[in-house]
Amino acid sequence: MAFEQNSETGSDPSGTLVSGDVRRHNLSVVARYLLDQGPASRSQIAAGTGLTRGSVTALTTVLLDSGVLAEVAPESTPFQASVDARAKGRPLTLLALEANHVAILALQLDADTVTGFLTTLMGKPLLHVVEHHNRPMGQPGLILDRMATVLGSCLDECRGLGRQLADMTVVVFAPVGGNPGIVVADTDLGWGSVDVIAELRLREPRLPDFAQLSADSTLAAQAELGLLPDIQDLVYLKSNSGIGGALISGGALVTGAHQLAGALGHLPLVPQGEQCACGQRGCLVTVAGPDEILRAAGLGKELASDGLTAALAELIKRIRDGEPRAVAAWEAAVDWISRALQILTLALDPQVIVLGGYWASLADSVAESFARNRPDLGDGAPLPWPDVVAGQLAQDAALMGAVWQSRDRLLRDPQKIFI
User: Fold this and answer.
1) pTM for the predicted model, two decimal places
2) Less packed terminus of the chain by CB within 10 Å, N or C?
3) Domains of the chain
4) In this model, does residue 348 exceed pLDDT 60?
């Protein structure tokens, strides 16, 4: 929705927003329209946003002068080109999002690697760095040192490209809580509470003040949601280094009173089960976590020598090839995974369940198990039951979610990326 005001510097006639807020909002409306629709003329922007042609002209002039937009020639067929050549008047000029002076950074830590992903505002990769940290359990300092090195490389590249870093997210495969956020606990790496942002800043003072810490599952869930039209209620469950998840209701992320909602790997399912690193017994991760499945499948040596990512790729291959030990290990885990999904379905009533991480490659078997045990309405009519689908972004879901959220934050206030 666009707001009009008496002039570019006048007051808002409704009295609900001050002039600066209206201007910021309408700049965002124009930028978002161009993100969603692609290059457009000023008249198309006016028609699509509800802003007057005069306001669009003034707003786009500001965005052009600040480097956020650029004028581009329309792509046309030979027939259209000949029509344009015969047409009277000035050729049509389109406007497009550009912001070639800024960059976005996602710095991601998982159980095996540190990844630095530097992109343009539109998500075009500028630098993709991956370094293994060798998983030193219970030693966050060693991993933070490696993260700071990757961060420094990304900041150097950004400067070398003549760009200014406009937004940054640090992604961790662990629960994040508090304000500002810290890692509450990372059972995959043997961490307790760690203030990752503060520790990174000690090692790399150039870390920007606007850097945010986010859990991978929430970013991945929101990224996957954006690819599913007409979906507002979703359960996201994934396994990479451990098991994580996120809950979305009415299009909004469910965070809970302590920002810990979605720690689905720690649903206590097994009565008097194995002690979990979180302190509970019988958590889902103790019976369906990747380390447990790999050991049951006879891939413990591969896990130790080749790392988690390679071991999971081998597990998927063996399951698809029908190797008995791998199939048995996976089938035992799938039973617990589907039980967790049944509990979540009756608690939240989602439209769809999205599986991420390496589970995306095995989503069909989870869906089959999940569908075998479902309630009915008492007269034989089945209760509406959500589909279980594979995430479309697979291993890149959290990274892409971080980049897209950074982009959206900047487009909500384009003045942050003015030259």
Assistant:
1) 0.84
2) N
3) 19-97 (1.10.10.10), 102-218+398-417 (3.30.420.40), 229-391 (3.30.420.40)
4) yes
